[in-house]
Amino acid sequence: MTVTHHVRVHRSEESLPREQQLAWKIAEVAADAVEVEADVVDMIINRIIDNASVAAASLTRAPIVAARAQALAHPVSHGGAGSTIFGLPSRSPFDILSSPEWAAWANGVAVRELDYHDTFLAAEYSHPGDNIPPILAVAQHVRADGRALVRGIATGYEIQMDLVRAICLHRHKIDHVAHLGPSAAAGIGTLLGLDVATISQAVAQALHTTTATRQSRKGEISTWKAHAPAFAGKMAVEAVDRAMRGQTSPAPIYEGEDGVIAWMLDGQTAAYEVPLPAAGEAKRAILDSYTKEHSAEYQAQAWIDLARRLHGAHPELGDPENIARVVLHSSHHTHHVIGSGANDPQKYDPTASRETLDHSIPYIFTVALQDGGWHHVDSYTPERAGRADTVALWQKVITAEDAEWTRRYHSEDPDEKAFGGRVEIELVDGRTIVEEIAVADAHPLGARPFAREHYIAKFRLLAAPVLEPAEIERFLELVQRLPELTADEVREINITARRGLIELDAAPKGLF
């Protein structure tokens, strides 16, 4: 049975024993040796495949090239066997390894670059698959087996998603990775079998070092957007190392008079109700998350599906000469974060960065409406964004907040929780076309819910240009045996690029 923890700010003169602090409660969940249930194990396998898919598609992109070069400048540390880096050989005698915190960094960027893996949206939003790179890196470094890795990942998902259910960050312009640092630290704690006291210190340190502003997702969005979760994962690894050495962290980090809640979130009078599994309760949160069929912000997923449906039913809508105005009625979040309500002129700029276009629902809906689909590369090229008929139609697309769609976005009832909306298209001939969609086709309640075969198909599609066929099959066969893997096999949870694809000497030079 889930236990709801009342979390509030405490003045310095108030006594708040460490056992009553949220960091300790999180650590208790992490230290609970409950077994992972079969359906959760299956979903963890799906998400490892999903992460590898998007990492494969990103191997030659500039942020990954830079992060990989940084990782390679840091050799394996003395405390373990080292960790693999996506794209590079990892099987003797040609293995190329790095220290676990830097492998978490490089692999975290690769997973996050295309904004194409799993999501969970509640009071806050998140990509809980970001927990996997740091937990996997540590597992490889300490030579953990598949069962231990599964348990660590289940904890990472559970803690991040429980924090996301309860504590809103974006209202205060704090980036969502502030929930990822603690969850990854907790997951690593589970993996290593650490005690509650040690994990709680790591959780507090990880939170303390991963709170940052949302400017990384505002205006002209930079390449740091992909680096932010990787940084949180790297900090989690370092926080665990520090805690294992007996070092303490700011406390109470959430509830303190000068803590995160008091000064970064809802303030001195704030209180939150945080749900966490009770002792002995299985960690099942991952089953409430959902992945992406399309490489775009999650709130765009359903809109892409609706646009491609309209493309087939009304091909005339792709011509801007036929359109007077397009209004996307959706939730507060969609309108203010990726819609015209953000007041970011860059969301209508055909020269904007890929990261910015990924957070522009007017652009995404326009291209999907004209093309009848979405491609993780072609839909973002400067040539595609700058096409004259696209720019003309794009400028006619606006968003509007709708109270009912906002309510459904925040609903705790999974049967009515929705991330779509209603489109009203006014044509110049006086007609109006109105359609709506609640969830993406790939959502568990959507038209075509993602199952194992869809994750595998996504991996094959994205990996085909960069991996040899034998490497694709090797990875898929290995990861689907995850709970049975030996420590040696866990070290093989990696993908090796085709010969010549990655040119290490061509990487940009830096300080290291």
UniProtKB/TrEMBL annotation:
- In terms of superkingdom, the source organism counts as Bacteria
Ranges where the MmgE/PrpD N-terminal domain occurs: 20-271
State a single Pfam family of this protein: MmgE_PrpD_C
Chain ranges of the MmgE/PrpD C-terminal domain? 294-482
Q: Where is this region: Disordered?
A: 334-353
Q: Which family does it belong to?
A: Belongs to the PrpD family.
* Protein name (Swiss-Prot/TrEMBL): MmgE/PrpD family protein
